[in-house]
Amino acid sequence: MQTTSILPPRARVIAGKIPLYLSSIRIWEALFATPFAYIGMVLAADGWPGWHLFIWLTVALMGVRTLGMSANRLIHAKEDALNPRTANRHLPQGILKSGEVVGMILVSGAIFVFAAYQLNSLALILTPVAAGYVILYSYAKYFTWACNLMLGWALAMAPAGAWIAVTGNLPPQAVLLSLVVATWAGGFDIIYGCTDYEFDKEQGIHSVSGKFGVATALWIARGMHLLSVSALLALGLWLNLGYFFYLGWAITVGLLIYENSLVKPDDLSKVGVAFFRMNSYVSVQLLFFTVLAVVL
């Protein structure tokens, strides 16, 4: 039996493209920073902050992430088309048009601002800073090898923003949690960036591996992950968190050791596993054990 949609034609077209919009920004990679935002939320509230804050924080996170990723796709469209690793993305393939991506930027930016308005005044005041950073960091690879580190700080805004959403201020504990995320995410972006070493050198694109070579870049990533787990341990001690947090910390250490063991200067074939699977495990399990440490 054929059914007729109640949506007007234009709305049906947009609804049909929603999966394309979500896949173009790799929505599944929200598993990296979003759990850390919820960790910041739970620690700041010392438990459950209520549905109003949880919902609007989630909307804000999705809005600013979509804003940043959409801008990244638009800014890097030329290189994505030339790079064999990224040539199958939506813009190079013509699956989405530039105007549609601009529309995603405008809509997600408006959603982000409105969600921040629902939280508190400081969250709203800082929206231009957060929005500006997640857009402008995409230009960093044209100017500095530190672009991988700047990506880390883009993700690190998630737990800081969550803490601000709960308390209306940014205490040093929140900054320490952001350092955990910045060094963890910056480290895994260095690893992932090694796969583009040859392409980046040819195109004059800056990166840690391009500056120091793949072997040294991998050691830098290991050092950053060591700093990340050290800062995470310091946070647990500072906040006097319970046994479950340290169990999550120990699992995090094990996962990062395994992640770094998967990649070698002469063998980057397992970067995909190291990049997505291991880092998703890190953030999700740490959220689980942090919640247990706070509520039990």
CATH class: Mainly Alpha
CATH architecture: Orthogonal Bundle
Helical/strand content category: mainly alpha
Tell me the strand percentage band: under 5%
In helices, the fraction of residues equals over 70%
Question: For the report, how would you describe the main beta sheet?
Answer: none
Overall pLDDT score:
89
Overall radius of gyration: 20 Å
The CATH superfamily title = UbiA prenyltransferase
Any overview of this molecule?
This protein is mainly alpha-helical and 296 residues long. The chain has a single domain, classed as Tetracycline Repressor, domain 2. The chain has 15 helices and no strands. The radius of gyration is 20 Å and the shape is globular.
Short description:
The protein has helices at 9-24, 30-45, 51-75, 77-82, 90-93, 98-119, 121-125, 127-136, 147-167, 172-193, 197-203, 208-212, 214-238, 243-261, 271-295. By secondary structure, it is mainly α.
Secondary-structure blueprint of this entry?
Layout: H1 9-24, H2 30-45, H3 51-75, H4 77-82, H5 90-93, H6 98-119, H7 121-125, H8 127-136, H9 147-167, H10 172-193, H11 197-203, H12 208-212, H13 214-238, H14 243-261, H15 271-295
Helix pairs in contact: 2-3, 2-9, 2-10, 2-15, 3-6, 3-8, 9-10, 10-13, 10-15, 13-14, 14-15
